[in-house]
């Protein structure tokens, strides 16, 4: 449900998987580093969205030391992202990832989309990264 975003300015960045190399090293940490800048631009909440289960996301944000800043949202089987057309099939990787959320960033202001940056290559962090989001705000 999108009810938690009503009346708020939020940043949601989606990752194919917690603990995966690009997500763990290049996507999540800059959002934590730029958290105060995001807040200064009026952002109420920052979320990381993934098709991982809630236990994995909770552990990941705790291990990264960002649980007090970034809320992990589980996109069960990528259903929400699938409705938005924002999934990627990673079955060919041969490591059991299957269909996941693709890498993207979404800014909402009272449920209105103000920015959507979708990575053409889900292994890269450019238009979905913290710098791109800050520039869009």
TrEMBL record:
Belongs to the peroxiredoxin family. Prx5 subfamily. The lineage of its organism: Eukaryota, Fungi, Dikarya, Basidiomycota, Agaricomycotina. This is Putative peroxiredoxin. It comes from Phanerochaete carnosa (strain HHB-10118-sp) (White-rot fungus). Homodimer; disulfide-linked, upon oxidation. CDD domains: PRX5_like. The active site is at 23 (cysteine sulfenic acid (-soh) intermediate). It comes from the Eukaryota. Thiol-specific peroxidase that catalyzes the reduction of hydrogen peroxide and organic hydroperoxides to water and alcohols, respectively. Plays a role in cell protection against oxidative stress by detoxifying peroxides. Pfam families: Redoxin. One of its GO terms (biological process) is hydrogen peroxide catabolic process. Keywords: Antioxidant, Oxidoreductase, Peroxidase, Redox-active center. GO terms for molecular function: thioredoxin peroxidase activity. One of its GO terms (cellular component) is mitochondrion.
């Amino acid at each position: 449900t999108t009810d938690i975003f009503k009346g708020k300015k939020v940043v949601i960045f989606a990752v194919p998987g917690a603990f995966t190399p690009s997500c763990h090293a290049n996507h999540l940490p800059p959002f934590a580093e730029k958290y105060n800048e995001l807040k200064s631009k009026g952002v109420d909440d920052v979320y990381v969205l993934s098709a991982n289960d809630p236990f994995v996301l909770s552990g990941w944000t705790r291990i990264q030391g960002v649980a007090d800043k970034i809320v992990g949202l589980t996109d069960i089987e990528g259903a929400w992202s699938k409705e938005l057309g924002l999934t990627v099939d990673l079955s060919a990787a041969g490591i059991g990832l299957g269909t996941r959320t693709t890498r993207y960033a979404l800014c909402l202001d009272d449920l209105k989309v103000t920015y959507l940056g979708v990575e053409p290559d889900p292994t890269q962090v450019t238009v979905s990264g913290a710098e791109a989001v800050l520039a869009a705000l």
